Amino acid sequence: MAQAKVRVTWLGHSTFLFDTPGGKRVVIDPFLENNPACPTAFKSLERADLVLVTHGHYDHVAEAERIAKASGALVIGIFEVCHWLGQRGVEKTSGMNKGGSQTAEGIRVTMTHALHSAGFINPDGSITYLGEPAGYVIEFENGYRIYHAGDTGIFGDMALIGELYAPQTALLPIGDHFTMGPREAAKACELLKVPQVVPMHFGTFPVLTGTPAALRALVEPKGVRVLELKPGETVEIGDGEQ
Ligand code: NI
Ligand code: MN
Asked: Which CATH number fits the domain that encloses residue 50?
C-alpha cells in the first residue's frame, strides 16, 4: 500500500530526498561528501530511482554521477548537464529544457527558469559551461506539487510558475550572496502564492548569511508557513493542509 504523503528529508544546502507516495526515491542536487551540513549517515547515499540536477555548479551536481552509477537511477537535468554526465559514463539520462515537462518513474517534472550561472570548474581550473541553471516543479503520484527553485535570484516570472503549476510548497534559497536572501525570498513567496516555504542554501558556508528567522519575520505575518528543517530531518507533507 503506497503511503499517501511525500516524505521530505533535507540533507543541508539544496539537497533533498523525496520518498514518494508511489515508493520511489527522488534525490535533488546531491551534494554530500563535501557538504559540511550533510549528516554523516547520508554521505555515502546510493539508493535512488531518480536524480534531479538544477545546474552544473559543484555544490549541486557533486554526487549525481556516483549515485546514478551506483543505483542505475535516471538523471534529469538540462540538456548540457545530461550530455556531460553521459560522457562520464552515466547510462540513463533524460535531458530537457526550460518550460518543458516529462514524466519519469511516475513523477511529473517541469523545468523552470532560474536566474544564476552554471559553470563546472574542472580539476585543472578550466570551466565547462553546462547550459543554464534551472528549477523544477515536481508533481508526485498523489498530485502534491513541490517547487525547488535551484540557485536563483528573484525574477518576476515566478508569478507564472505560481499561476500555471500552483505548487503547495516551495523550496527557496535564502542564503544571499550567490542567491536570493530572505527579503527576495519573501517576495518570491508572494509571487508564487505558496502557502508553505522550506528555506535552503543557507548556513552551509559562512558567506551564506540569510536565516530562516529573517524569512519568517517577513512572511508569517502574510500567512505563509515557514517549515524549517534540520539537516537529516524528515517530514511528511502533502495531505492538502501543508
Ligand atoms: Ni549555483
Ligand atoms: Mn549553489
From this structure: 3.60.15.10
